[in-house]
Description:
- With 405 residues, this protein is α/β, with parallel strands linked by helices.
- It folds into three domains: 19-110, Rossmann fold (3-Layer(aba) Sandwich), CATH 3.40.50.720; 136-281, 3-Layer(aba) Sandwich (Cobalt-precorrin-4 Transmethylase, domain 1); 284-402, 2-Layer Sandwich (Methyltransferase, Cobalt-precorrin-4 Transmethylase, Domain 2), CATH 3.30.950.
- 28% of the residues lie in helices and 20% in strands.
- The protein has helices spanning 27-38, 52-56, 85-98, 134-148, 184-191, 204-208, 230-242, 261-270, 283-290, 322-327, 341-350, 380-387, and strands at 19-23, 42-46, 61-63, 77-80, 101-104, 117-121, 124-128, 169-173, 195-198, 215-218, 247-251, 275-278, 304-308, 331-335, 358-363, 371-376, 393-397.
- The strands form four sheets. A five-stranded parallel sheet has the order 3-2-1-4-5, with helices on both faces.
- Helix 7 (230-242) crosses helix 8 (261-270).
- The longest helix is centred in the middle third of the chain and has 15 residues, at 134-148.
- The chain is globular and about 70 Å long.
- The N and C termini lie far apart (68 Å).
Amino acid sequence: MTEPRSDHYLVGLALRGRRVVVVGGGSVVARRLAVLAASGADIHIISPEVTPTVESFPGVTVHRRRYAEGDLDGAWYAIAATDDPAVNAQVVAEADGRRIFCVRTDLAAEGSAVTPATVRHDGLTVGVLASGDHRRSAAVRSAIGAALAGDGLADAGLTDAAEPHPAGVALVGGGPGDPDLITVRGRRLLSQADVVVADRLAPGELLDRLGPSVELIDAAKVPYGRAMAQQAINDVLIDRAKAGKFVVRLKGGDPFVYGRGFEEVQACAEAGIPVTVVPGISSAIAAPAAADVPVTHRGVTHEVVIVSGHVAPDHPDSLVDWDAIGRMSGTVVLMMAVARIEKFADALMAGGRAADTPVAIIENGTLPTQRVTRTTLAAAADAAEQAQVQPPAIVVIGPVAGLRR
């Protein structure tokens, strides 16, 4: 005798500050982490191996070990997301014993909860469940998202079968972090992808919206930590495209602004792979704007210089004329500069920039976790240390950083 089918009860959980345990650290977790983190939950990830994106995700506690009985102690919600069905079953069993709702990603029917396909727009959160049909729920979610954004249903992913399938590789700039700031073209191509090769700074909520059949490859480069080698990224783009897959290389910001995007274009071109480049909103401009810092302002500055902080001023590989930038009176935007902010400040002051020049440091620009630290050039290093500034962060130096509404 078969059990009668029962529909799931859709509910919103208030998880802010509450412990959530995720067992597993692979691509499934990477897809869901941004949406889960947006709830404000106290997230603990348990896995002996984690992807670079999961490892470096801000505000998440990673325990590099295997799951053990008792790991759900104090949890309000759990996710079993390993590639070992036996471990997932153990997590669900412990959750049931403790009366903790638990999602099992490999076999949804065995968990006590399921994750709806969700879309957020203008203060709304819409969730879709389709009785276990993940393709249908993802398609309907895409349709709702496109309709809410005012784009109509043509771009929603429901009409893909009637459209020519894209070929080759699309190099898509995902914008500064807020998923709503990807371009319409970028979102449409992402909805058609067979494979997505994603950077750490690509908008995480967009990964959660991918269809269940889409292969997600973590190509994160953790600052001063683990990184997928550029040649390996080039190889996987070419390999999947030659296999007939449509590959979206999803990057944060704009792919040609310190994103090594043109290296990937060159590699694909040499292999005979067609490439579509979709520009994105650069965090160098968008993060300051989101923090009420205009990089230009009439009567204040006529110049903006965007500088990579990946190489210190005194490093032999540095291509920057720091003395020339120090003599400027306009705006300097530093990217990837958190770890060396003292050296950059010293170099600018040595070139002539005043010690009391205003500075604004914007962390996680455009995201709900955005934070701004305002200081001066001479005090920038101490202020960053005191505020425990963490990447990703944009440093804006110049009179515009001192402006107020």
